[in-house]
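Section 5.1 Outputs to date
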Amino acid sequence: MSEQLRMWVEISFNIAYLLVVWGLVIAMWRRRAEIAPSQRWAMPFIAAFALLALGDTGHVGFRIIAYALGDLDATFSLGGLQLGWVGLGALSTAVTLTFFYALIYLIWLRRFDRRLDWFGAVLLAAGVARLVIMAFPQNQWNSAVPPQSWSLYRNLPLIVSGLGVAYLILRDAAAAKDRTFLWIGAMILVSYAFYMPVIFWVQQMPMIGMLMIPKTLAYVAIAWLGYRHLFGARKTTASTLAHA
């Protein structure tokens, strides 16, 4: 695939993705009154995917601006600082994704009536550690391609958070025979299956970054599952919703 074709595939996919995910967020918000009283724990789904969409809007939008300027390393001046369009977009989605998994953990707590324990504290601490690591200048947020070492440092806590939450969801969803959350947990694992090769090898093989497309589709699937089964997209009883 030529660089020009890859650019247009990326731009087209990203625009379509943002339209879909923002559409689902808006649909969730409009249907929030249809949630059964026993399903009110589902409300953080709206915040989680609004955050995800917001961060990805910055990420995608700034990449499109950089493409329009003819260079992914394009920068702009803000208060005397030179900031990279692509790097700033990557920072925005990195921050919102961290809070996304904190909200998914909160959803798990409420759905399965759990309490914060040592394992949950580790997952939340991993998110805090990620935010701290991202504050270091060695991340080189002005660079279109991050340094591999610091990319690993900041993404390892995210791997802990995401896979830890997926484990909790799958464990309790299996016990409760909750097919919706089984699929949500499975889609989190799918997203990481495509994301981790990018973390480890994108500097050596830039084309592997195309794996972000199926990774992103896994998040769209989670948003659709939440919308369809938790926000009144189909008329069922609360009991059916819990075991759909």
